[in-house]
Amino acid sequence: MQSIKFTKMHGAGNDYIFVNCFKEKVPKNLTQLAQEISSRHFGVGGDGLILIMPPEDKKKNDARMRIFNLDGSEGEICGNGIRCVAKYIFDNKISSKKQYQIETLAGIIKPKIVATSRGKATMIEVDMGLGVIRELNKDIVIDGKRITGHNISMGNPHFVIFVDDLNDIDFASLGAKIERHPFFPKKTNVEFIQLRNRKEIIMRVWERGSGITLACGTGACASVVASNALKLTDNEVTVHLLGGALQIKVEKDGHVIKTGPAEVSFTGEYEVKD
After folding, report:
1. What pLDDT shows up at residue 274?
2. Beta-carbon count within 10 A of 202 CB
3. How many beta carbons lie within 10 A of that of residue 247, not counting itself?
4. Cβ distance 74 to 4 under 8 Å?
């Protein structure tokens, strides 16, 4: 029976199982592996599986990242996950640098180690690339009710909804229905946002393929892109999530800079099911 060494890490509570494919071999059926290893009752448990792989362009880039959601579907990018990838590269000395270029399905993402403790990375800043506004004030209909949201891309799809009170929202029911709405052919992540002031927002998220999670890095970025475009907030915003806070800044050129923590939970070895 094949076994795989893994590291469980999280960024603001958004937890994934990371496999170092510089050393480890993984099965061909990654959809099945992601579903089984991510199970919180029968596997390691997490919001998904992330593979840290050798880059396709070894001259320019430091690593390649593949992310698989809880349901086994492959995502383009994970904002919290890529901070953990950068921490893993730094902590395990895969690269001697502090700034990396990581290949993802959303393009080249550039994380940078900005704080360390006892030789380990603790805080990572990431240039998440351009925040693209697909459509502001888009109306969709759910159960006969009109819902207005903002269609934002961070290399992956987001539908950002501003609400008066997060306590009034049934995240599980509404998030699942919006994720699968026909308007989103590849499904979508869904962010519910309550404004605190011009420099702070509170966010709850339904992640495509994973459901309710404690944080979503790209979702935090998309939410600030939307709130900034609507002139509801300044360009630098603290996003409060169930698992902690992220600092998001929208640059003048449209690039979104995200800063937040990354932590190791534990390491182990997983026996792959036949």
Report:
1. 72
2. 18
3. 16
4. no
State both tokens at 260.
Answer: 């937040």
Q: Tell me: the pLDDT tens digits for 71-82?
A: 999 999 999 999
| Residue whose pair of structure tokens reads 């001259």 in the numeric block | 59
> Is 84 in the active site?
no
Phi first, then psi: what are they for 162, rounded to 5°?
-95, 130
Whether 52 and 84 have beta carbons less than 8 Å apart is answered as no
Residue of 21, 78, 84, 221 with catalytic role: 78
**What class is the 130-260 domain?**
alpha beta
Q: What global pTM score does this model have?
A: 0.95
- Every domain of the chain with CATH number 3.10.310.10 lies at 3-126+261-271, 130-260
pLDDT tens sequence across 70-123: 999 999 999 999 999 999 999 999 998 999 999 999 999 999 999 999 999 999
Q: What's the pLDDT at 227?
A: 98
- Give, in words, the CATH class of 3-126+261-271: alpha beta
**Considering 21, 84, 216, 221, which one is annotated as catalytic?**
216
Q: Nearest to residue 52, comparing CAs of 108, 113, 94?
A: 94
Which CB contacts under 8 angstroms, 24+ apart, belong to 203-207?
A: 203/239, 203/240, 203/241, 204/166, 204/169, 204/171, 204/241, 204/242, 205/175, 205/241, 206/171, 206/172, 206/174, 206/175, 206/176, 206/178, 206/179, 207/47, 207/69
pLDDT digit string (tens) for 162-209?
999 999 999 999 999 999 999 999 999 999 999 999 999 999 999 999
216 in catalytic set:
yes
Residue spans of alpha helices (H) in 109-182: 171-179
End-to-end CA distance of the chain: 7
